[in-house]
Design goal:
Elements: H1 2-20, H2 27-32, H3 39-50, H4 53-66, H5 72-94, H6 100-108, H7 111-143, H8 148-206, E1 218-221, E2 226-230, E3 234-238, E4 241-245, E5 248-252, E6 257-260, E7 268-269, H9 278-281, H10 293-308, H11 312-318, H12 324-341, H13 343-355, H14 358-362, H15 368-377, H16 381-416, H17 421-439, H18 447-460, H19 462-471, H20 477-499, H21 507-513, H22 516-532, H23 540-547
Antiparallel strand pairs: 1-6, 2-5, 2-7, 3-4, 3-6
């Protein structure tokens, strides 16, 4: 069933792409769908594109692993669209640009600043594309039995063909269609699980006082070494040998199989919040070893709220609207759809704490939404709902990846090389190939953490550039370039240090794990200080006036 559902979703995307080929005749058709997308369709497609596989699986997994503080992720993701609505959507659309680097050159009159913005677009796009390919690879590897490398390659091929055929017009219809698929395939199983666990299960999920117990005898296979903290004396079976674990720390070797009896308290994993413990219940982040949760929470909100306003695959959708008024309405539609969708990850994460606590011990918490239905309902309905969730998650991958590949192709073929329509289609394949190569060694990284890096880089580069470029006439090309370099190097460097495990404990680990709280102000400061040393470009005043024309004076375009 899972193969049939995933194949159906993938074939539908390919079919839409093939249907759209006949209306793609120019660069404008390919990049911005001839600026003719209605607010309702555009809002649905933005929601479909924004609600990524990484966002859904990652948030649900982090709720299971780190607790209710992770709910700040969807709060920040959604609140970012308020910033986009108020400060960016209409002025950016009125600028007349196809892409963010187009806007930069028009506003600052500098080809170098354009190329720096194009580089930032590629950096953000590929960082965000990696967790999409990760999630798609894990789905196919777990449910279809395809090896992870082959699954990632297959996922990259499908989305590249879809985008190369139809460009933005295909992506618009694919993403709107897949928002409906995601909402149906992820929300319906969530409702079924809420009903299936009953009042006792729902109460245990939201009131974890007293710790979490195994609901049945459970064998946990450890694929990496682990250090477990046991609170009470527990009888276990380790590799077919019966033992009694006294309270304290116990090391588990790679490849060990530990069987816990029914009713045993789930031990704590060293370096993570205790499952159902005080830190787990606190509405603050406890990532990076739990150091400085208040700082991590604020930094995450800076990254997600301001990062949304700089995501290139979201910004390019604003240019598909007929005018600034339509762009703002599309963002309003998106806000409503996001608020509806983000209820689902909370359900999977909270119910997973009591139903599949073994995921907390072994690490692959990103798969909680995929395995939870089978664990709660059992065969045959559990397996069927797991297949439905997997297909919905795969639809999320296709929707987001198509938008990301489109901006990557535009960044290479339009912003850096200024190529033809044919060149744009070729660069889609190049962008997908690079994404696959980056995703292959990243299979062990947490999906949501990589997503957080993409938002931090976006908030530290394109967000300051857009805010100051739209609202401050004093911005210069030198200032914009300095800010993008400082912010990009700071956020990307922190991400690389975290990925390599080079971040020490305590404050250094928290600062590198969630860099937006310091990298974003640093980028803004660099842009302002360096701009003060020069003079604004000639002609910037005209574009500023065009971007801020009152909506009552903006021409209404119909048809």
């Amino acid at each position: 069933m899972i193969i049939a559902l995933i194949s159906l979703v993938a074939l539908a995307a390919l079919g839409i792409g093939m249907f759209s080929v006949r209306v793609v005749r120019s660069t404008g058709d390919f990049l911005v769908a001839a600026r003719s997308v209605s607010p309702a369709l555009n809002g649905a497609s933005i929601a479909g594109e924004y609600l990524s596989l990484a966002s859904f699986l990652g948030v649900a997994g982090l709720v299971l692993e780190s607790g209710v503080g992770v709910f700040w992720f969807p709060v920040g993701f959604t609140a970012g669209f308020l910033v986009l609505l108020v400060a960016v959507a209409a002025p950016l659309r009125r600028s007349g640009a196809y892409t963010v680097p187009d806007f930069v050159e028009n506003r600052l009159g500098s080809p170098l600043a354009r190329r720096l913005a194009g580089t930032a677009v590629l950096l953000i796009g590929w960082t965000y594309l990696v967790p999409q390919f990760q999630g798609a690879g894990r789905i196919l590897a777990r449910f279809v039995g395809v090896p992870y490398p082959s699954a990632v390659l297959l996922a990259g091929t499908v989305v590249a063909v879809t985008v190369a055929l139809g460009g933005m017009r295909a992506a618009t219809y694919v993403q709107a269609f897949q928002y409906a698929v995601k909402l149906l395939f992820l929300a319906v199983p969530a409702l079924a699980l809420i009903i299936a666990v009953g009042p006792a299960g729902r109460s245990a999920a939201v009131h974890p006082e007293g710790g979490t117990q195994f609901r049945q005898a459970t064998t946990v296979e450890f694929r990496t070494p682990a250090a477990l903290e046991v609170r009470t004396s527990t009888s276990v079976t380790v590799d077919d040998r019966t033992a009694t674990w006294a309270p304290g720390r116990h090391a588990v070797a790679d490849g060990s199989r530990v069987r816990f009896p029914r009713g045993a308290t789930v031990p704590e994993v060293r370096g993570a919040a205790e499952l159902g413990g005080a830190d787990w219940r606190t509405p603050l982040l406890h990532l990076s070893g739990g150091a400085h949760p208040l700082f991590q929470t604020w930094s995450l909100l800076v990254a997600t709220v301001l990062g949304t306003a700089g995501l290139p695959h979201i910004l390019v959708r604003l240019h598909t609207s007929p005018d600034g008024r339509a762009a703002r309405r599309a963002v309003v539609v998106t806000l409503a759809l996001l608020g509806l969708f983000y209820l689902a990850p909370a359900v999977y994460g909270l119910l997973g704490r009591t139903a599949v606590p073994q995921l907390y011990l072994t690490g692959p918490t990103d798969t909680v939404a995929l395995v939870l239905p089978a664990a709660v309902l059992g065969p045959p309905w559990g397996a069927a709902l797991s297949a439905v969730v997997a297909a919905g998650a795969y639809a999320a991958f296709l929707a987001t990846s198509s938008g990301l590949l489109l901006v990557i192709a535009g960044g290479i073929g339009h912003d850096l090389l200024t190529g033809s329509l044919r060149d744009l289609r070729v660069t889609v394949g190049v962008g997908a190939a690079v994404g696959v190569l980056l995703a292959l060694p990243a299979g062990s990284l947490e999906i949501s953490v990589v997503v957080g890096w993409a938002f931090a880089i976006s908030a530290s580069t394109l967000c300051p550039l857009l805010f100051l470029g739209i609202w401050w006439r004093g911005l210069t090309a030198a200032g914009a370039g300095a800010g993008m370099v400082v912010g990009g190097v700071s956020a990307a460097g922190a991400a690389v240090a975290s990925a390599l495990g080079a971040a020490p404990a305590g404050w250094p680990g928290a600062l590198l794990g969630q860099p937006a709280a310091w990298s974003v102000p640093l980028a803004f400061a660099a842009m302002v200080v360096v701009s003060r040393l020069g003079r604004p470009p000639v002609g910037a005043e005209d574009l500023m006036l065009a971007m801020h024309v009152p909506e009552s004076a903006e021409p209404v375009r119909r048809g």
